Amino acid sequence: MLYASKYAPLLFAELPRSAIQALERLESVGAIYAADQPIEPLLHSAARTARALGTWSHGITGQGATVAVVEAGAIDLNHDDLAGQNGERDRYYHPDQLHIGTEATWMWHATQVAGVIASTAPADGDRGIAPDAHLLSGNAAGILGLAYAWDAVGATEWAIDQGADVLNLSWGWSTGTPSRSMNLLDRYYDLIVREHWKTVTVAAGNCDGNCSVLSPGKAYNVITVGAIDDLDTADTAADWNDDVASVFSSYVDPLSPYGDRNKPEVVAVGQRVRSTSVYNDWRTSDGTSFAAPAAAGEAALMISRADWLKAWPETVKAVVIATARHDEIWADADRSARATEDKIGAGCIDATAADHTLTDGRLAGVTLYPDSLPHSFWFEAAEGRTIRVAIAWDSHPTSWWWLPWASDTLKADLDLAVYAPSGSQVAGSQSWDNSYEFVEFTAPATGWYRVEVQKFRWDAGNTHEYLGFAWHSD
Description:
By secondary structure, the protein is α/β, with parallel strands linked by helices. It has 2 domains: 40-359, CATH 3.40.50.200; 363-473, Jelly Rolls, CATH 2.60.120. 20% of the residues lie in helices and 25% in strands. The chain is built from 11 helices and 24 strands. It has helices spanning 17-24, 46-49, 53-56, 108-118, 149-161, 184-196, 237-240, 292-305, 313-322, 341-344, 351-359, and strands spanning 3-4, 11-12, 40-41, 66-71, 91-92, 134-139, 166-169, 171-172, 199-203, 223-229, 244-245, 266-269, 273-277, 281-285, 363-368, 375-381, 386-392, 396-397, 408-409, 412-419, 425-429, 436-442, 447-458, 465-473. Helix 4 links the parallel strand 5 and strand 6. The termini are far apart. The relative contact order is 0.15. The model is unreliable at 400-405 (pLDDT under 50).
């Protein structure tokens, strides 16, 4: 046996063909996967493009939030700009690496990801999004520096046991050829979000002849993050208006019953990202690997502002989507057209807008029951303002041993409608296969608006849904 999960009905083992065939005949075995491929990393202005500086000016810098970097390698926690992060309990060692010493396990990729989240460099330089967040180094790499699915699960469960609020996964994994189908790690992290209330940010993947979003970024309940190029300009509104969707950022959506799932949910800067590296050095790199930790840092800032969000990853996701910037991003370098939702989701993350949403109380987390729909939220808005509203809920990966764990479906299809003070509908979103909906509209009048969460489908036996809600005004 290689690893037995504590948090999911999941066991990794090396078995002969005859034993696998015998397991296939057992009713208690929901699915069998080949898991012999290692996970792969997905490769100065991150904080500015994510607009974190406004949040810092209000004293919110990530204090009280714990972010785990689950990687095929360890963070160099001795770096001067990861100061205060070098407690021994904050490091996870794969059993195969216990004997080789801390320094030999350091990896530039993990250290660079960590710096995007929590570097303490000067605010006018390369500071991380949440510089006072607490980091955990979940090194999943085993012998020869390779990390497999069971290694990632082991590092993840160590991080949960250490109190991680946010998990960042800047890597992709497949069972061979990249596929649009969900696999065991998508289902595993869906369970971690729904059953263990953790916010999980995942790199969408880097196109290499196949632009399919990689696992575990195909999971319903995680926040999958693509990349943009901010052209190293991020100080003014005009600077933000030249941002371009990265050509390498994966966006081909997972397969779904009605074909309308959309991944990634958001994007962040992923080109020319300068961050901490091993041996007290700095490194500049490209990749969705460095976009995902910007979203992890944004989540840490939100938790720092409102610690109840530690238990509401659905609300974190709704806020991230509701406050993202969309219209400023170009599809390509010739700037002939704006990027589409298919490529950049709801847009580029905006930590300051998210913080305003929290301070203004424009968010909620509610538990919905079959007889509690439709459910309404109310907000007041001024005529002419651009309004963004988002809701998010979860898929239901099976968590009981006697049910097929391969099942990971949406047990509810919820729709979103917004009504003006006059009572007329001004916006709506009704996808079939997403676990979130969002709308954007210009307020036609000053007054109170009603958001209605509608039940298109609610499966028999579904007892409840956790729903996150947020809205933002420009």
